[in-house]
């Protein structure tokens, strides 16, 4: 089967790449020396660059326009690369858990992520996000694990909560929900799953059928806990039932 022109990886010599990126050859050499670019393909003494290098140069230009220093950009790129992992493994749930609903991932260019969290995309925050598994790198794009978590984080930052504090809270929440998940899994394993296997039922379907129950319990308990905390914070007395008075 012939490869279409759109499917081919375009390659450029250094001068052509610099021209397409809108920079000088000297600047391109400088970026390469600073290891801001992955190594080119070598063919004898000729170095061949491709569209991935061009995309990286455009990312660097966009980040520079947003006030990042070259040193900061180098740290950001290093954080992206250190978090590289198989995206399918990150987002997929193999085996019996495959029927468990996954979060909707979001693919972003690095500059788009920087715009989404104005001034908050630091190497430290990126490293934390990578460590939590929120971010992964796929070629020249960043994959965020969850549209819901991304939007919530964005809203909290807009409300004045530093992204570092949001990520710190996320780590604490992760520990608590892992414990809650273990409680429900133990409950199902002890009282439901064994009988389901004996009856020849699909374990994944059984778990999927019961999952909303766990979600409802957590949502109700969290709502009541938030109400208690906020009343205590505001110094309000708890409600005394329906007295008929307004």
Automatic annotation (TrEMBL):
Residues 11-79 form the HTH merR-type domain. This is DNA-binding transcriptional MerR regulator. Gene3D superfamilies: 1.10.1660.10. GO terms for molecular function: DNA binding. Keywords: DNA-binding. Pfam families: MerR_1 (PF13411). InterPro entries: DNA-bd_dom_put_sf, MerR-type_HTH_dom, MerR_fam. Coiled coil: none annotated. Transmembrane segments: none annotated.
């Amino acid at each position: 089967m012939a490869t279409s022109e759109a499917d081919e990886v375009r390659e450029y010599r250094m001068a052509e790449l610099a021209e397409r990126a809108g920079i000088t050859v000297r600047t391109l050499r400088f970026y390469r020396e600073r290891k801001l670019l992955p190594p080119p393909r070598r063919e004898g003494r000729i170095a061949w660059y491709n569209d991935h290098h061009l995309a990286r140069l455009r990312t660097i230009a966009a980040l520079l326009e947003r006030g990042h220093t070259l040193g900061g950009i180098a740290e950001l790129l290093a954080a992206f690369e250190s978090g590289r992992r198989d995206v399918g493994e990150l987002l997929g749930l193999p085996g019996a858990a495959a029927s468990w609903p996954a979060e909707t991932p979001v693919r972003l260019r690095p500059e788009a992520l920087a715009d989404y969290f104005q001034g908050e995309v630091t190497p430290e925050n990126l490293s934390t996000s990578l460590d939590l598994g929120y971010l992964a790198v796929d070629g020249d794009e960043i994959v965020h694990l969850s549209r819901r978590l991304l939007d919530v984080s964005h809203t909290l930052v807009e409300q004045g909560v530093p992204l570092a504090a949001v990520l710190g809270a996320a780590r604490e929440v992760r520990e608590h929900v892992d414990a809650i998940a273990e409680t429900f899994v133990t409950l199902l394993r002890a009282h439901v799953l064994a009988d389901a296997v004996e009856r020849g039922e699909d374990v994944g379907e059984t778990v999927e059928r019961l999952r909303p129950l766990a979600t409802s319990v957590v949502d109700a308990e969290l709502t009541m806990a938030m109400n208690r905390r906020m009343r205590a914070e505001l110094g309000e007395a708890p409600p005394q039932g329906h007295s008929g008075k307004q």
